[in-house]
């Protein structure tokens, strides 16, 4: 039991000594400037690689060539105006009916002889013979001659105006002049360390 206790105590003591020795600065540590830092534990290992140079930024793709604007369709040629129908030829006026032949007048009665005042009736004289009625000689006036002439229709001289000439010119697309952005400047050369590493001869091996 005593041996186990002593071994445990020795182990704890050794661990504490190791922790304290690691925490204390060594003679050749960076804290004891200007002394050089210790060489690597394994001298046969090469020095660490320098940091990788960052890749240059990707060259942006050139912008897409914009499609040329659509050529607008030319305006529709307007249809010529409809040819108006020629005016209707007016119908000739109706031929007026000839005037009615007037009926011949009725034969007038001869005027009545007025009765003489009544005298006492003398002896009746014989009546003289009646004068014969003259024959009726009526002549209807002849109808006037019909001389109607319809005016000729005016000549039709319609001319449709010619369509205006179409002189549309599409504007040429602007020339595309692409200029690639200049490449980025090269990265600055790494500055030398103010305190270059002076590789000394390997010190004696560490004792743990």
UniProtKB/TrEMBL annotation:
The keyword Translocase does not apply. Residues 35-134 are annotated as: Disordered. Residues 35-45, 57-109 have a biased composition (Pro residues). Residues 46-56, 110-130 have a biased composition (Basic residues). It comes from the Eukaryota. The keyword Signal applies. Residues 1-30 form the signal peptide. Keywords: Signal. This is Extensin. It comes from Carya illinoinensis.
